[in-house]
Design a protein that fits this description.
380 residues, mainly alpha, three-stranded antiparallel sheet, two-stranded antiparallel sheet, 45% helix, elongated
């Protein structure tokens, strides 16, 4: 008889445990759902939350397919436990109603790319290399290119500003923007000019709720960002202290422009630098520390060489000016018989004397002398 045998947590086989096939077959891993995660002990769940992004957790409340209703309050409590000072984020359903159709727009998340990219109505940014921060009022996270395509500016005098959710409350020098698709749906609705219609009042209510929700979410994300920056500063300080203790100088941690992005990726971390983390991190930092030190020494050598060359050049110029002339020729003054307008008088006025100096090498010729090169290249 075929029976379901549990070998250990998370792995199951459907073979009869007494048969050869069951003994030889490798266990298959079972698919663990989100409800399984929420049913684990609270202390374990809190530890798991440190490895989940906030945007991912927030987005789950807008996906009503596989999150059970009884499990929904678990994540808000976990968020508050993780960030006690953070404001409470209300859970609302964003709806766009038209005369003959109702469309509920849910924010979802793209897990395949490994980034928690919230999007609305299938607005998925394909340019995740340089995404903006999440817009708490539009509930989107788009790059510059996708933002220009999928959003539309809304003028302050536009009557649809009262009906379409925008990021009007965000401090910005440019006009507020709205989702282009949502703006189009509202602009094509006949009731948009009828202030007494139920649709118009409902749209006003939706916009107010979105604005209120956006303000709370904006404060919530600001608190998270402040906490993240504080953790980054602490981790950066811990890394620098460990590097200095190993004999490196503070100047060795000044990254060159070529290594700047990768160096920052290692330095700016949110998790605390424990001994176990440091064992894996330090070997990755050593090549960059050596490169930074060599670049710093190279720049210092070039600067010192340039300074020594300037000293040699000034000294050579002073010597050249101090030497007496080789020949000095002074023209005679014109006689009384010569008129002031004659050519001889004009030449005498402009070329009263001629000085011929000793031959002296120029600055570039001095660099061809081995002795001068030794003085410039070596710190003598």
């Amino acid at each position: 008889m075929e029976m379901k045998h549990r070998d250990f947590e998370g792995y199951t086989t459907k073979k009869n445990p007494g048969t050869v096939e069951a003994i030889a077959a490798a266990p298959t891993q079972a698919q663990l759902g989100f409800s399984r995660l929420l049913n684990i002990p609270p202390e374990v769940f809190n530890e798991v939350l440190y490895y989940l992004t906030y945007c991912w957790m927030i987005s789950q409340f807008f996906i009503g397919d596989w999150v059970f209703t009884s499990s929904r309050p678990a994540v808000p409590r976990a968020i508050e436990q993780k960030s006690p000072k953070a404001v409470h984020v209300p859970l609302i359903s964003v709806q766009v109603e038209t005369g003959d159709r109702q469309s509920t727009k849910h924010a979802s998340v793209s897990l395949r790319t490994g980034r928690a990219a919230l999007h609305l109505s299938g607005l998925l940014c394909n340019m995740l290399e340089t995404p903006y921060q999440m817009d708490p009022y539009l509930l989107v996270r788009l790059c510059e290119k996708c933002e220009n395509i999928q959003t539309i500016p809304v003028h302050e005098l536009d009557p649809l500003l009262l009906l379409v959710p925008t990021n009007y409350a965000m401090p910005s020098e440019r006009e507020p923007i709205a989702l282009a698709e949502e703006y189009r749906i509202v602009s094509e609705t006949d009731e948009r000019n009828d202030e007494d219609s139920g649709w118009y009042k409902n749209r006003m209510r939706i916009r107010r709720e979105r604005e209120s929700f956006g303000k709370k979410l904006s404060r919530f994300l600001s608190v998270l960002e402040a906490e993240r920056e504080a953790k980054v500063r602490v981790s950066k300080l811990q890394i620098e202290e460990r590097i200095v203790k190993l004999g490196w100088k503070a100047l060795d941690m000044t990254s060159s422009p070529a290594n700047f992005p990768k160096w920052n990726e290692f330095i700016y971390r949110t998790e605390p630098i424990t001994d176990q983390v440091w064992v894996g991190l330090y070997p990755k930092l050593v090549p960059y520390l050596e490169t930074n030190r060599e670049d710093r020494r190279r720049v210092r050598r070039e600067t010192e060489r340039s300074d020594r060359f300037q000293v040699i050049n000034l000294m050579a110029t002073a010597i050249q000016k101090a030497l007496p002339p080789l020949v000095r020729v002074t023209k005679k003054r014109p006689t009384k018989d010569q008129t002031s307008g004659s050519a001889s008088a004009a030449l005498s006025a402009h070329y009263a004397s001629v000085r011929i100096d000793y031959p002296f090498p120029s600055s570039y010729e001095l660099l061809t002398w081995p002795m001068i090169n030794d003085i410039i290249d070596k710190d003598i």
